[in-house]
Specification:
Layout (H helix, E strand, L loop, with lengths): L1 E2 L1 E4 L15 H14 L3 E3 L7 H10 L8 E7 L11 H9 L3 E7 L2 H7 L4 H17 L3 E7 L1 H7 L1 H13 L4 E6 L6 H15 L4 E6 L6 H10 L4 E4 L13 H11 L2 E2 L9 H12 L16 E2 L2 H9 L17 E2 L7 H9 L10 H16 L7 H12 L7 E9 L10 E9 L2 E9 L2 H14 L9 E9 L10 E8 L4 E8 L2 H28 L1
Parallel strand pairs: 1-10, 2-3, 2-9, 3-4, 4-5, 5-6, 6-7, 7-8, 8-9, 11-12
Antiparallel strand pairs: 13-14, 14-15, 16-17, 17-18
Length: about 525
């Protein structure tokens, strides 16, 4: 099986995405996760651009990595100077990484109009920089910025820039589709020519952006034309519309096209590591991402579900377990009896489709849906509802009351609401208060304080998404609302739902369900360990 080298740029190119900001500790955690997946190279930032990146390069030296090599990233030397005089190149040496990724200009427009130098000087900048770093004992990967645009406008000069990098000692020529605007056949031709000219001397890489929605496709095409390194971001985020999504490219290449990107045994970690990195990045992962999204193996229509239960091959291109994902049967009015049974059997395997309790569950579910509940995206609340019908539910706390109040203007930054809760656990009363950025945030903080005294694992729960939907819009401000909350403990996530004409009450129902769900599963885990 032919091997493809993967370079992940989550910490460099991905960090250029809107709203993305990593702390040094975030970066270290992400490096560990990518290393666990089996990524070979991690492009971790530009040490010459900011003190935080330089601090990271010093700290990451203390972290043992099994698979990944950390790369520093920077530009060629400045025009009309020497490498020894270039502060950015000096910072690359200070980062002390074995491998350095250098980017340079391929496009004559960029050379003349942006860095304002001659075409000859640009070639010298590329060659000198690669040679200088090579002399300093570094492995050099050369990123040919705007290569595809350059190839389309002046192929000869674009190829000269690659030759300059090779002459300087670069081991990889990475062709960058920087603007993300090229079609598949255009990329195919350019990669094929680069491979024909340089593929026997150095490794050819591909780095694409997603401005036309083709970053994954262009990366795959590049590999079929001979590229052996693929650069991208594990979850595809980045500047503008993002980078090539490695969570799709890796399984596409490895499971569909016969290449090896990561150790085969690690493929089953893909979904959990993607979730972990989304958590560290503080983003909600796109549910419809191929392979790793929550909806990647979700089925809703009754006929589809019936077929999948008989043989998953009917509607699934791979087994979800191969990439560490799960098959999901969505609860809704179009879901059949088979769906209900499959869901129930996950926590009550003794129930079969002929049990009378199944009709009772179906009836109760339909009553709740009539009130505005929707269990399609709230597996946590569905499980709690079924447990209550089966008599397998014991509340972990009793609510006596909660109150919320708001302030405007804010008394201090990050605080506009206060909440107080009075809950009872095993006869003990706990009254707590919380301040937050909104009533639900304040309630969450107050309830968490109360329950942590009795259930320390509550501290692991974090709310990652909060959605509100008006159900009966004709009722205007008296309308019922449906609140859906997604929570996580860092390992798994779950979703709960609440419905009420009172937004705070609907939020409370979803919030308390979220805590109940976590506590039930933790107790069951401990019980299984005991027996």
């Amino acid at each position: 099986m032919k091997k493809i080298t993967i370079l992940d740029s989550t910490l460099r190119d991905g960090a250029q995405g809107e709203g993305i900001s990593f702390s040094v500790q975030d970066k270290i955690h992400i490096c560990r996760a990518l290393d666990e997946l089996g990524i070979q190279y991690i492009e971790a930032g530009n040490p010459g651009s900011n003190p935080k990146d330089m601090e990271f390069f010093q700290e990451i030296k203390k972290v043992p990595l099994k698979n990944a090599k950390i790369c520093a990233f920077g530009a060629t030397r400045r025009k009309d100077t020497t490498c020894d005089q270039d502060a950015n190149l000096q910072s690359l040496l200070q980062a002390d990484t074995d491998t350095v990724v250098i980017f340079g200009k391929s496009w004559t427009f960029q050379v003349k109009q942006i860095i304002k130098t001659s075409l000859k000087e640009n070639l010298a900048m590329i060659k000198d920089t690669c040679a200088w770093l090579k002399k300093k004992g570094r492995h050099v990967f050369y990123d040919a910025e705007h290569f595809f645009t350059a190839y389309a406008e002046d192929k000869d000069y674009a190829m000269q820039t690659l030759q300059a990098a090779v002459d300087g000692g670069a081991e990889v020529l990475c062709l960058c589709e920087t603007k993300g605007g090229f079609m598949i056949d255009e990329c195919r031709r350019a990669v094929a020519d680069a491979v024909a000219a340089f593929g026997k001397k150095v490794q050819i890489g591909i780095h694409t952006h997603n401005d036309c929605g083709l970053a994954v496709a262009n990366s795959l095409v590049a590999v079929t034309e001979g590229a052996t390194q693929v650069q991208g971001v594990l979850l595809g985020f980045g500047e503008r519309t993002g980078n090539a999504n490695l969570s799709t490219i890796i399984p596409d290449l490895q499971l569909k096209m016969g290449y090896e990107c990561i150790p085969p045994k690690n493929m089953s970690k893909l979904t959990s590591i993607c979730n972990q990195i989304a958590e560290l990045t503080n983003i909600s992962m796109n549910q419809q991402l191929p392979y790793v999204g929550k909806s990647a193996f979700a089925h809703k229509a009754g006929m589809h579900i019936d077929a999948v239960l008989k043989n998953p091959f009917a509607y699934e291109h791979i087994e979800p377990e191969v990439v560490g994902n799960n098959r999901v049967f969505l609860m809704s009015e179009v879901a059949g009896r088979a769906t209900i049974i499959e869901k129930i059997n996950r926590f009550a395997p003794q129930i079969n489709k002929n049990d009378a309790v199944v009709d009772k569950i179906l009836t109760h579910m339909k009553e709740l849906e009539q009130q505005g509940y929707q269990f399609e995206g709230a597996d946590g609340s569905f499980e709690l509802m079924v447990r209550k019908v089966l008599g397998q539910y014991q509340p972990f706390f009793k609510l006596h009351y909660y109150t919320t109040s708001g302030s405007n203007p804010r008394p201090e930054e990050g605080v506009c609401c206060c909440a107080q809760t009075k809950v009872e656990v095993d006869g003990q009363i706990e009254i707590t208060a919380g301040e937050g950025d909104g009533p639900v945030n304040a309630l969450d903080i107050a309830l968490r304080k109360a329950l942590e005294k009795f259930y320390p694992l509550v501290s692991q729960i974090r709310l990652v998404d909060y959605k509100v939907r008006v159900i009966d819009t004709k009722a205007a401000t008296a309308a019922k609302v449906r609140v859906i909350i997604e929570s996580t403990d860092g390992n798994v996530s779950w979703t709960t739902v609440g419905v009420s004409a009172d937004l705070i009450e609907a939020s409370w129902i979803a919030l308390s369900d979220s805590f109940d769900y976590k506590l039930i599963h933790d107790i069951e885990k401990r019980y299984k360990k005991i027996i």
